Amino acid sequence: GAGVSQSPSNKVTEKGKDVELRCDPISGHTALYWYRQSLGQGLEFLIYFQGNSAPDKSGLPSDRFSAERTGGSVSTLTIQRTQQEDSAVYLCASSLWTGLNPYGYTFGSGTRLTVV
Amino acid sequence: KQEVTQIPAALSVPEGENLVLNCSFTDSAIYNLQWFRQDPGKGLTSLLLIQSSQREQTSGRLNASLDKSSGRSTLYIAASQPGDSATYLCAPETGANNLFFGTGTRLTVIP
After folding, report:
1. Which residues contact residue B10 at a Cβ distance below 8 angstroms, ignoring those fewer than 6 apart?
2. Taking chain A (116 residues) in consecutive chunks of 10 residues, what is each chunk's mean pLDDT?
3. Which SS3 state, helix, strand or coil, does residue B19 take?
């Protein structure tokens, strides 16, 4: 697609339920990133996928969070047993990283998650 | 670890003014630096990307400069408009998955 697409744009869920957030990156972009932004805070890195390499999961805040990227394209971020502190905007970005000539990041419009 | 500072944290100006947003970073070994705009509760929109070998980039009323050796970048906005009101984020990149964000400058342009 022309840009990074995220769905849903808004999600309200009850505490304790599982949620899945989807990211469809720009076609051909090898790198995909998930960030989250809590109200009034900066961006917090969650996870990074690059091609077929093992993902960098160093930013995931707990084992309730997981993500996968199927076929090197679409990614799903799953949050199990949601807590109120998980409420945030979850942002996905993709880039064409070549190692020597990096290009900029393109962000999706985010998923606003509210846990009630 | 890269530390990114943006000054001022907030700025309020009357419509039509020219303004400068400042960004400083501690690790000058960057590949590029990107300026983003973020509207409240929304994602990030890329404004300008400056490669490490470049000194500046221009897009419309926006001009971004980069002084890699001193760890500084500025975003110049000419003839500001109320639609420019947003938070502006500076993000230097030092390698794969090494994009560091500043805390942003919240700009309000008063009609």
Report:
1. B105, B106, B107, B108
2. 89 98 93 90 89 88 95 93 96 80 83 96
3. strand
| Among candidate residues A17, A31, A42, the one with its CA nearest the CA of residue A72 | A31
Instruction: State the DSSP code for A28.
Output: T
- A43/B21 Cα distance (integer angstroms): 19
pLDDT, tens digit, for every residue of B65-109? 999 999 999 999 999 999 999 999 999 988 767 788 888 999 999
Q: Average model confidence (pLDDT) for chain B?
A: 93
The one-letter amino acid at A57: K
Q: Spell B10-47 as b/e; 16+ CB within 10 A means b.
A: ebebeeeeebebebbbeeeebbbbbbbbbeeebbbebb
Q: How far apart are CA A86 and CA A15, in angstroms?
A: 10
Phi and psi at residue A30, to the nearest 5°:
-85, -25
Interface of A with B in 56-95 (CB under 8 A): 56, 89, 91, 93
Identify the pLDDT of residue A107: 93
Residue numbers in A near B104 (CB within 8 A): 42
In chain B, which among 17-76 make CB contacts under 8 A with chain A? 31-32, 34, 36, 41-46, 49
Lowest mean pLDDT, pick from A42-46, B6-10, B15-19? A42-46
